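Hi support team,

I submitted a single chain yesterday and got back a structure, but I'm not sure I'm reading the token output correctly. Could someone confirm the output below corresponds to the sequence I sent? I've pasted both exactly as they appear in my results page.

Thanks,
R.
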Amino acid sequence: MTYDLIVMGGGPAGYNAAERAAHSGMKTLLFEERALGGVCLNEGCIPTKTLLYSAKILDYAHHGEAYGVTVTGATLDHSKVIDRKNKVVHTLVSGVGAKMKGAGVTVVNGTASITGKNAEGFTVACNGETYTATKLLICTGSSAAVPPIPGLKESVEAGFAVTNREILDLRTPPKHIVVVGGGVIGLEMASYFNSIGAEVTVVEMMDKIAGPTDREISGILQKNYAKRGVKFLLGAKVAAINGKAGNGTVEYELNGKKESLACDLVLVSVGRRARTAGIGLETVGVLMERGAIVTDECSRTSVPGIWAAGDVNGKSMLAHTAYREGEVAINNMLGKKDRVDYRAIPAVIYTNPEVGTVGETKESAEKAGMKVTEHTISLRYSGRYIAENESGDGIVKIIVGEHREIVGVHMIGSYASEIIYGAAAMVAKKERVDDVRKLVFPHPTVCEVIREEMFSI
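Hi R., thanks for writing in. Yes, this is the structure output for that exact sequence:
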């Protein structure tokens, strides 16, 4: 069977691109080995946000007295939260399936592998059948990185250690969870389990949490969770993980000393790796680097006719980046010049408070040789923020280039996830300070502090 386009992988990059291609008249085939929606829909973005929302409701109940609302006896049934998570995921996966059917995309469930190229195009094998297409879009995503820590493999097999996939199906929450890795996944899960009453310890190799997030903002986030009882071991290297379901230890080195920490569950969240093994890239000579497919800003690989989008290229492992990369690939296949602007990719940490960030930090800009200034304003300049946050310490940082253009915005506080897209538009369009001053922001809102700060720059 011959198609115009074969898409390998049905996550955000793949299913969105397949729909765009089919609507543009391309005969499109989509392979997915597990469930449509990929990691994001099934074991990432959506499931975690479902859990975090339940935890947020519980937090509101527990702290209602400060706002004149007394709630007694508020509890959370973790198993029911998981049931609701599964319902949400099922609804959305079914929706993606309906979109594929409506667009005319042929979907094949199974593990696909490139087998080569012939006169008709690229060949892909799946479930004993061979399919051909003139163009390929590789969207096989990523998987949780499992570092070579002594005892980790055995602990995973015994149910003592889990990744982001397994933790979302736990029916009984741990009493004490150790989170290895203080990045986005680790922090969001630390937030959830802390809210529902578990003892939480975060072990991070770096001297700060939240990866490349602005240091002051990551510090505010850490301070907030430390007040809630989350313990942070920064600059700590895990030496061994040993245990069985419900009981074990994490051994680590900190300040030259070896320590041991007892707990009943370990979440390993030290990053993700592109899923490129076993998909036949060697048969067509696609260029790789550090296990990821090398792509340009148009999502093209080193092989004409083959594109790659999403986590598999290792550039920006975010679902919304994947959407955009897939769209750019399809546009270029159709002869429409398009490119991904990696300068303006927003990122969010869905903790409470939320963190939103886009563009350069002062540190990253200076490393790149840019001349910038940094401007910070407290969210307490917002009437709505004060009305809704009894003791919030949120801030917004605006990074301004030498021509007064906005090159970065970073914030921690209420609605950061919903505000940061506007800041991303400013960065993408290279808006200048004077341009933003002329924009009308709704009042009272949290986002209007961005405009407020422009009059101080």
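A quick pointer for reading it: The domain at 2-144+273-340 is CATH 3.50.50.60 (FAD/NAD(P)-binding domain). Let us know if anything else looks off.

Best,
Support desk
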